[in-house]
Amino acid sequence: MSRRGRSTSGRLPLVLLLPALIGLAFLLIPLIGLLAKAPWSTLPAKLHSADVWQALRLSLVCATSATAVCLVLGVPLAWLLARGGLPGRSVIRAFVTVPLVLPPVVGGVALLLVLGRRGLVGQYLDSWFGISLPFTTAGVIVAEAFVAMPFLVISVEGALRAADPRYEEAAATLGAGRWTTFRRVTLPSIAPGIVAGTVLCWARALGEFGATITFAGNFPGRTTTMPLAVYLALETDPDVAVVLSLVLLLVSVVVLASLRERWISGLQ
């Protein structure tokens, strides 16, 4: 590219610069306000609070468990969407990605209607096996997995579509079965997509609020995750709410920083 082309492309018209700066301020000022209002002098004491660690521990356990569920179910689902050749794949994909745009509270209501003690499936889980998911820690995991799984599926499906199928075809011609080809060839080739989807899935599960409070309730030590603890603390101890918000903000920044190189390489 010529010097003139580079200099022209580097200019930003004022009509674009002004709204861009306003948009940047709109996104940054609330975060700056959170940092400015943080109780830095009492932060160590707040972090060592039993309520904070209880919510943090429960959030980490539930988000990790939900991510494990999403990996077990989501990777095969992504493969089905990318390579399955099923009729009506676009419709299936639309339903898979609905939780991305569905209000989480609606997702929680849907889970209650299906997995509640009188739900379509929950009534049989309760009467046959004595399993009741709503308002339990397991219910938190289910709610988080429901909301977070599309992030994993989309990432893995994109990686599968971008992978070169000739390697799988070569493995098949050498006598490898479908499972062996998937395990030894396909999975290593899409590993970056799985890692990116897993991280996004985990971060989304960690920050889930609407479906969790609707399906699992808010019981300290059992279903009160960090987002729910923030909501409660705003009414009783705003400083604790700010501390919990800072922890979630730090996790979000770490997640985005860890995926930055993959996003940049994907755009090039």
Task: List the defining traits of the structure above.
268 residues, mainly alpha, 0% strand, molybdate ion transmembrane transporter activity, MetI-like
Helical residues, percent:
over 70%
Structural class assignment? mainly alpha
The topology string of helices and strands comes to: HHHHHHHHHHHHHH
Shape: globular
Uncertain residue ranges:
none
Outline the biggest β-sheet. Answer: none
In CATH, the topology is named MetI-like fold
How many structural units, i.e. domains?
Answer: 1
For the termini, the CA-CA separation is 16 Å
Number of helical segments? 14
Named at the architecture level, the CATH assignment is: Orthogonal Bundle
CATH H level, superfamily name: MetI-like
Residue share in β-strands: under 5%
* Cα Rg: 22 Å
Query: Total strand count, please?
Result: 0
CATH class: Mainly Alpha
Average of pLDDT: 84
Protein name: Molybdenum transport system permease
Subcellular location: Cell membrane
Membrane topology: Multi-pass membrane protein
GO molecular function: molybdate ion transmembrane transporter activity
Outline the structure in words:
There is one protein chain. With 268 residues, this protein is mainly alpha-helical. 79% of the residues lie in helices and 0% in strands. It has a single domain, classed as MetI-like (MetI-like fold, Orthogonal Bundle). It is built from 14 helices and no strands. Helix 9 packs antiparallel against helix 10 and helix 13 packs antiparallel against helix 14. The mean pLDDT is 84.
